[in-house]
Specification:
This protein is mainly alpha-helical and 446 residues long. It is built from 17 helices and two strands. α3 packs across α4 and α8 runs antiparallel to α14. It is found in: Membrane.
């Protein structure tokens, strides 16, 4: 059995499941039969997975443009200088809620299936995102954001689902698309929030001050996203389940062996160990935990970088910044987001195929660190070279992080059998949420 990470084997799972018998009435067996009969890329299922993850990410990113004004209008801040302080708690409440329940949702997805968790998450996004837009008090904004994260169980589940709807050679594409949906949400979400917030000021001919949108100036962007959630929720009726529900009397018949291999820089198998992950806790599964550690560090780096970049770019040049306007920063982020989509869709799968997962992570990590050292000297450049260099560096930095994150996704899912996959992703999501909650504060202090 080939092992993931080697040349040409980037997407092959460590625990390769090849059932000899298909059980009638088992949705997992039905999916396995479908994959066996249709060896091509499942574009329809990939798109469905992509759009589901997109709509659950939109509520996270859409509030960035109007959160400052929302906190101001709620009247909780006594001084203008305190608005950022209170806004930080609104953002952190979502991550805290998600961190508390991600493992629970993963365990539940391994018990009752992937589809119910996806449906619950989409429904909760619809309800609590709508309520957030109707917030008239600070405590309501905090509560609805917390519950939005608390009931968001799809992030880990959707990663497990993405590898279960396709053959091993297509895992790289499936998980890349999950990652690109977040990149697109970072473009679409702020655009929706910035364009539709405070509609009575921007579109006075369409919305009067006495209308619903005059009383709740931040309801329209939330309503717009909730309508999209409703459409996707209806589409989940046709979403196939992938979890096996039949009983296996002999677990070793389902997973006859587990070969876990670490790869050297020369892409040779230099260490092998045979173990049974079925009889072993997830926290003692080192291939799983090492990939989760890699994932969390990459997410911490990405969140800290995102926090610092805007502050640095908008700072005056006399303080070492770039004197960029908010529009300049927005243009850089749009170019970066679009580039990530193209990179993950068309370039990353080939890189992972040639270098393997571990070597791809090595190269991307080194490139990311080197790029960070190039940022301070950029303040000495003048336009138009400054804009060109910043855009190129931002694209390379984000693509490097995306490479590490996607590689870790694949390694995580290939390190465990199916009935532990959502739980493993839940652990990763919990730790990632904690890292992301601390990253902005830590980066701001530094």
């Amino acid at each position: 059995m080939k092992i993931a990470g080697g040349e040409g084997e980037a997407a092959r799972p460590l625990l390769e499941e090849k059932p000899d018998v298909y059980f009638d009435g088992c949705p997992g067996c039905a999916m396995d039969r479908r994959k066996a009969e249709n060896p091509g890329i499942p574009y329809g299922l990939f798109f469905h997975t992509w759009i589901i993850n997109l709509v659950t990410c939109l509520p996270v990113s859409s509030l960035f443009p109007f959160l400052y004004f929302m906190i101001r209008d709620l009247g909780i801040a006594k001084k203008v200088e305190d608005i950022g302080f209170y806004a930080g708690f609104v953002g952190a409440s979502y991550m805290l809620g998600r961190a508390l329940t991600s493992i629970f949702w993963g365990i539940l997805a391994d018990r009752i299936g992937r589809k119910p968790i996806i449906v619950i998450t989409t429904l909760s996004s619809l309800v609590f995102n709508t309520l957030f837009g109707l917030s008239m008090h600070y405590w309501m904004a905090i509560s609805t954001r917390f519950l939005l994260g608390f009931l968001n169980g799809s992030l880990g589940t959707i990663r497990a689902y993405a590898v279960e709807v396709c053959r091993p050679e297509h895992h790289t594409i499936g998980l890349s698309l999950v990652n690109t949906s977040w990149a697109i949400a970072l473009i679409i979400g702020p655009a929706i929030g910035g364009y539709f917030a405070q509609p009575t000021e921007k579109f006075p001919n369409l919305f009067s001050n006495d209308s619903l949108f005059g009383r709740f100036p931040y309801f329209l962007p939330c309503l717009f996203i909730s309508i999209i959630c409703f459409v996707v929720l209806i589409s989940c009726i046709w979403l196939p389940e992938t979890l096996h529900t039949h009983k296996v009397h002999n677990k070793e018949d389902q997973h006859p062996e587990s070969l876990i291999t670490y790869l050297s820089d020369s892409k040779e198998f230099d260490k092998q160990c045979s173990t049974s992950t079925k009889n072993k806790g997830l926290l003692t599964n080192w291939p799983l935990m090492s990939s989760i550690i890699l994932f969390c560090i990459a997410c911490f780096d990405d969140m800290a970088y995102s926090e610092i970049f805007s502050l640095w770019a908008e700072s005056d040049k006399k303080y070492g910044g770039l004197s960029f306007s908010s529009e300049d920063v927005g243009n850089v982020l749009v170019v970066t987001g679009a580039s990530i989509l193209l990179y993950q869709t068309f370039i990353y799968p080939h890189i992972a195929q040639v270098l393997g997962l571990i070597n791809s992570s090595h190269v991307a990590t080194i490139l990311s660190m080197v790029l960070l050292f190039t940022y301070p000297p950029m303040a000495n450049l003048s336009r138009p070279w400054l804009s060109i260099v910043v855009n190129v560096a931002s694209v390379l930095k984000s693509c490097s992080v995306a490479t590490v994150v996607t590689c870790s996704f694949i390694l995580q899912n290939n390190s465990v059998p199916q009935d532990q996959r959502a739980t493993a992703n839940g652990i990763a999501t919990t730790l990632m949420s904690l890292f992301k909650a601390f990253a902005p504060a830590g980066a701001g202090i530094v």
